[in-house]
Each structure stands twice: as C-alpha cells, then as structure tokens.
Automatic annotation (TrEMBL):
PROSITE patterns: CHER, TPR. It comes from the Bacteria. Transmembrane segments: none annotated. Residues 1-276 form the CheR-type methyltransferase domain. This is Tetratricopeptide repeat protein. SUPFAM superfamilies: Chemotaxis receptor methyltransferase CheR, N-terminal domain, S-adenosyl-L-methionine-dependent methyltransferases, TPR-like. InterPro entries: Bact_Chemotaxis_MeTrfase (IPR050903), CheR_C (IPR022642), CheR_MeTrfase (IPR000780), SAM-dependent_MTases_sf (IPR029063), TPR-like_helical_dom_sf (IPR011990), TPR_rpt (IPR019734). It comes from Candidatus Viridilinea halotolerans. It holds the Pfam family CheR. Gene3D superfamilies: Tetratricopeptide repeat domain, Vaccinia Virus protein VP39. One of its GO terms (biological process) is methylation. TPR repeats lie at residues 380-413. Keywords: Methyltransferase, S-adenosyl-L-methionine, TPR repeat, Transferase.
C-alpha cells in the first residue's frame, strides 16, 4: 500500500498530536510498514480507510498503536540504574518515608512489564519485612496488547538476559520453555492503559499523584521534543518533593530536566524533585534534606513486604474532558450562605476538592470534599473521593467508612466496592477484600461491556471486570 505524501503528512500529524509519536521523514518507511501491517490486521485494503478508522479513535486506533509501538525491554535493563536504585534512591526514600512507611512508584511506558516487576524484585531485597511497608507500583502503557502480556507475566529466556539464574529461580516458576512470575510478585503491580501524551495525569483517581519514583525509560525517544517537555513537566508535578525520576540513557537533553536536581551516579544520571520544592500538605511530615546513606542493606531472604495497589484505578484514561475552570468560591459560598441556595451541580461542588487532590494537597482536598458533603450528604461520588483522600492520608478506617457510604448511597457504585476491597487487602482482611471484589464484579457484569463506569475516569465495564477478575485470581492464590 502506497503511503503518498498527503497520507504521510496526515498520519504523521495524527500520531504526533494524539500519542506524541514522531515520524520524521527518515522514519517514513517504518511508518509505511507498520501501517500496512495494521491495515492487513484490520482487513482494510487502503491506507485512506485505515486513516479514517484511526480518526474515530476506537479499535482501529488501538490496533495501529499495537503495530507501531516498540516494546523492547528485559528484566533489570541497565544494571547501573538498578544498582543506583538499590544503593541510593530506595535508601533515600526509605529514610524520608520512614515515618509513614509508604512508597508509591510508577513505571511509565512499561511495555510487557519487565521493568515494573524488576522494581518489585528490587524492593524485595531492600525493604525490611518488618515493620511492614505499604508499596504501590503502578505500570502503564499505551499498548493494550503489551499490557495483557504484562498481566500474564510469562516470559521467555530473552527477557532474562541481564538476570542471574538465582534471581530467576527465586521469583519465577518454569512453564515449559518459559517462566512465570510467582503470584506474590505479580500482585504487587497494577497495570493500566495511559497515554503519556494526553493531559490525564497527575490525577488522584488514577494513582498518578504524590509519587516517590517514576521510571520512564526508552519511551520519550519516540516523542518529539515538545511532547517530551510536556511529559517531563507532568512527571515533575506528579512527584512528591524529594521524589526521583529515572529516564533512559538516550535522552540527554538536560534542559528538559532543568527543574530537577541532577545526581550523577556511576553509569547514569538521576533526577530528583527538590526536597524543598513548593509542596502542598502531603502525608509525610516535612523533613529536611538527608544525606544519602551508604549501600549497607544486604539482600534479604525475608518474606515480601506488604504491597498495596495504587489508589487506583485501572482506568481507560482517555483524554479528560476539557478541564472545568477552577471555581474556588463554590464550596465556601455554599457553606457560608445560611439560606438554601439553588443546589450547585455535584460535579461543581466536588471540583475544588478534586483539583486539590490532583495536586497532592490532601488536607485542603479533604476539607473541601467534607464541606461539599455537608451541602449534599447524598453524594456517592463525594464519599468515594473522600475515601481516596483518606487513604492518601493513611486514615484507612475513615477511608473504609467513606467507601462504604458511597455504596450505601448508590448500591451500584462499583468503585466504592473496589475501594473497600483495596483497604481490606491492605489491612489483611482478605475474605472481605474478595467479597468487595465479587460484589463489584456482580454489578459490572450486568452493565453493557463498553459502558463507562462512574468514578473510573471512563474505564469501561469490560475493562474493570478484567481488572477485578485478575485481582480476585491473585487474592485466591
Ligand atoms: C522500548 S519500550 C520501553 C520499555 C521499558 N520502559 C524499558 O525501558 O525497558 C517503549 C514503550 O513505550 C510505550 N509508549 C510509546 N508511546 C507511548 C505513549 N504515548 N504513552 C504511553 N506509552 C507509550 C510503548 O508502547 C512501549 O511499550
């Protein structure tokens, strides 16, 4: 199929605008090849038809993305960076997060999962088993086929090219010629679709706020510079003060990272959001900068630390609707007006709280959502948001109550059930966690598969069902 000049320019612009993927003239042949394969997969006989299908942003778009993205990856890729993680980054975070014993990590552009699982395996050696740490590892990618393979966690020898045999034996079980990650490590990572080129992060509902570490390696090499700048700026906002960013080797434009501190370590460069960067109130007390400790933590054979899913949710993460103007006066005005005012739309009432939560300002978010709930105490979405905020504040009992109320107010509010299951799992109440997930599944299977689920950032019923089933399977192992 011929990719003529006109079509080349249209495909190039669409891919750049929607996914940040950059196809300059020198990569035109790669693009033509990928598009030809995608058209064949879709049973289309012309690139024009493929283009029209992509514009609609549905299955055809996904299939093209599956065809064009490159998922080259392996466990413990770039040994120097994993050494730095073990010896500098994680010990630093453990000192800083010691008072709350909680870590939030994100593998952005995770491909088939090796990077995120390498993080889980590294933490197994670095974190003490007791007292327990709450760890969440979020792993996202734009390619749904890669995500599916990541969840299956079944790998061939090529993925282990930098992994010792001892580590492979410890973390995996052989299945024919391949190896499957053991369930206790699989359940530590939550996989979700997220297009880094879209303005869908940092946002509290998808677990991309107040992060301690972001790994985004060998991803922005496919983007143009403007997209890369936007992505790095968003990562900066998504990190808590003192949070670390690790990018791949082939991403040397230092100016893009100018807001970060630069830390040179043998064989790599790491970035850190300054400890004293303007911060909203977060879970941990403000701590002074600390000297990085020497690498004294020996490999541990203790049981894995307790992992908590991100305040999740495996959302579809389509572009958010245009952000509503931030109306700081809505809640205050409603609360202070004695006479009953005409009720504000619920979304407006919650908007300031949601905005505060999205920027990690948990205490403001809590006050704002509680004020909104005092105006409209029958708002399931409000209680669900409050539950997420309280989880961030470490108030798990309060979070559980808030989730429970959301379900009480709207029995089909499945995100409330999922929230409860999260808390129960974190507190070791596995039977209750299973019950919450089953209840969510019950309602999800009664919805049209492609119906968006309230409170889940447009994730569909089918997508959430798949997520809930995996969680149940992992809890049952
Ligand atoms: C080469 S892999 C990198 C995997 C892993 N981070 C590593 O370094 O081993 C690049 C990944 O970036 C993903 N990717 C490309 N464009 C993306 C976008 N706009 N949003 C999210 N992920 C994207 C691809 O699907 C692919 O899985």
């Amino acid at each position: 199929m011929d990719l003529n000049d006109d079509l080349y320019i249209r495909f190039r612009d669409l891919l750049l605008r929607r996914a940040g993927l950059h196809y300059p003239e020198r990569r035109r042949n790669d693009l033509a090849h990928g598009l030809g394969q995608a058209a064949a997969t879709c049973g289309l006989t012309s690139l024009e038809a493929l283009y029209q299908g992509m514009v609609e942003n549905g299955t055809i778009w996904d299939l093209v993305i599956i065809q064009l993205t490159i998922g080259e990856t392996y466990f413990f890729r770039n040994a120097a960076q994993f050494t730095a993680l073990r010896e500098r980054v994680l010990p630093d975070l453990m000192l800083r997060r010691g008072p709350v014993r909680s870590l939030r990590l994100w593998s952005a552009g995770c491909a088939t999962g090796e990077e995120a699982y390498s993080l889980a395996m590294t933490l197994a050696d670095v974190l003490p088993a007791a007292p327990e740490w709450q760890v969440s590892i979020l792993a996202t990618d734009i390619n749904t086929h890669f995500l599916q393979r990541a969840r299956e966690a079944l790998y061939g020898n090529w993925s282990f090219r930098e992994t010792s045999e001892a580590a492979r034996e410890r973390f995996f079980t052989p299945e024919g010629p391949r190896w499957r990650l053991k369930p206790e490590w699989r359940r530590q990572v939550i996989f979700a679709r997220l297009n880094l080129a879209e303005a869908v992060y940092p946002v509290v509902t998808n677990g991309t706020v107040a992060l301690d570490l972001i790994l985004c390696r060998n991803v922005t090499i496919y983007f143009d510079e403007a997209t890369t700048r936007q992505v790095i700026d968003r990562f900066y906002a998504a990190l808590a003060p003192g949070g670390w960013l690790i990018v791949g080797h082939a991403e040397p434009n230092a100016d893009i990272y100018r807001a970060f501190e630069t830390h040179n370590v043998p064989g790599s460069v790491l970035y850190r959001k300054p400890v004293n960067a303007p911060a909203f109130v977060t879970v941990q007390p403000n701590m002074p900068a600390v000297a990085l400790p020497p690498p004294t933590l020996p490999p541990s054979t203790l049981p894995p630390p307790h992992f908590a899913p991100p305040l999740l949710v495996p959302t579809n993460l389509q572009p958010a609707t245009a952000p509503r103007p931030f109306n700081t006066t809505t809640v205050a005005a409603l609360v202070s007006t004695p006479a009953p005012a005409p009720p504000a739309p619920l979304a407006d009432l919650l908007a300031p709280g949601r905005a505060a939560a999205d920027r990690g300002d948990w205490r403001t978010a809590r006050a704002s959502v509680e004020a909104a709930l005092s105006v409209n105490p029958l708002c399931a979405a409000g209680y669900y948001l409050l539950g997420q905020i309280l989880e961030h504040l470490g108030e798990l009992d309060g979070a559980l109550n808030a989730y429970r109320r959301s379900v009480y107010l709207e029995p089909t509010w499945v995100m409330g059930n999922i929230g409860m299951a999260n808390v129960w799992r974190q507190t070791g109440h596995l039977a209750e966690a299973r019950r919450g997930l089953r209840s969510a599944l019950y309602h999800l299977t009664r919805m049209a598969p492609n119906a968006p689920v309230a409170g889940a950032d447009e994730a569909t019923a089918a997508e959430l069902s798949a997520y809930v089933r995996t969680q149940l399977e992992l809890l049952n192992k």
